[in-house]
Amino acid sequence: MRILIVTQYFWPENFKINDFALGMKKLGHHITVLTGKPNYPSGNFFNGYKFLNKRTEFYEGIEVIRSPLFTRGKSNGVRLFLNYFSFAFFSCFTALFRVRGKFDVVFVYEPSPVTVGIPAIVLKWKFEIPLFFWVQDLWPETVQAAGMINNRFLLGTLNKLVSYIYKKSDKIFISSMSFAGSICQKKISTSRIVYFPNWPEEIYLNTKIDKERYSGLMPAGFKIMFAGNIGEAQDFDSILMTANLLKVIKIYNG
Predict the structure, then answer these.
(1) Domain region containing 160
(2) Of 172, 188, 205, which one is at a domain's C-terminal end?
(3) Same domain, yes or no, for 187 and 226?
C-alpha cells in the first residue's frame, strides 16, 4: 500500500507518528510524509532548518516533504494561532504543487491542531483516495479547556470546521474510546469510527529491568499514578487538589 501521511509534526520531532511511519515501512508499505519544519517543543526551528530550506528530505528511506510554517515561539495564543494556521495554509499549496506520485490512502495524525485535516482534504480531492483521520486531541474541547478560545462564536465556528473535517474523513481512528461520544455528536456514524490506541515504547517492554531496584523509591500505602501530558488542558491543579483532599479525608478518618 502507498500511504501518504499528513502531520504537522515529524522527525526530528518526537511523536508517535514517527514509529507508525517506520512500522508501516517495515511491513512493506511505501510511505511519504507531508509535514512542517521542526520547531516543537522549543518554539524555534531546529538546527539547520529555516522557513524555506530543506523542502524535501529522506528519513530511513521515507520521503519527507516539508511545508513552511511560522514557529510556535513561546506558545502564547497568537503564536500558536499563527503556527497552526500557517501550516494549514502553506501545506495546501505544497499538497497541490509538490506532492506527486500515486497513493492509496491519506493518513492524518492529529494531536493538535485539527486544522492538519485541511491539506489532507486537498490531497484526498487531488488523488481521489480515501482519508483516514487519527484523532489524538478532541477539538474544540482541547482549546476550550486550555483557555485559548472562550468566545462562543469562535467556538461554534471551530466546531463547524471540525465537523466538516470529520465528515470528509472516510475513517476516523480514535486513541481513546471516550472520544467516540464527541465525534458522534457531530453526526458521524459509529461505523466510520475505529478504535486505534497508542502503544508503549519498546523501553516499557524491556523484561530485563530490575524491578526490585525501584521498589523502595515510593512510600508504602495507596498510590496514584498520573500518566500523560501536564499542561493547561489537563487541569493538573484539580488533580493536586484531589490528592490533597484524599489525604485530609484519610487523616480525618484515622
Answers:
(1) 2-205
(2) 205
(3) no
The Cα 79–Cα 227 span in angstroms is: 28
Relative orientation angle of helices 117-127 and 152-168, to the nearest 10 degrees: 30
- pLDDT higher than threshold 70 for residue 75: yes
Say if residue 12 is preceded by a cis peptide, omega within 30 of 0.
yes
* Omega before residue 140 within 30° of 0, cis: yes
Percentage above 70 pLDDT, the chain: 89
Q: What is the DSSP string of 47-103?
A: TT--SSS--EEEETTEEEEEE-----TT--HHHHHHHHHHHHHHHHHHHHHT--S--
Cβ neighbours around 182 below 10 Å, total: 17
- What would the pLDDT profile of 142-172 be if each residue is shown by its tens digit? 877 766 677 788 888 999 999 999 999 999 9
Closest CA to 87 of 64, 104, 71: 71
Q: Euclidean distance between the first and final Cα of the chain, in Å?
A: 62
Q: Are 92 and 75 in a shared domain?
A: yes
pLDDT of residue 250: 60
Instruction: Rounding to the nearest 10 degrees, give the CA dihedral for residues 167, 173, 179, 184.
Output: 30
Angle between helices 77-97 and 117-127 (to 10 degrees): 10
> Do the strands 62-67 and 56-59 form a parallel or antiparallel pair, or are they unpaired?
antiparallel
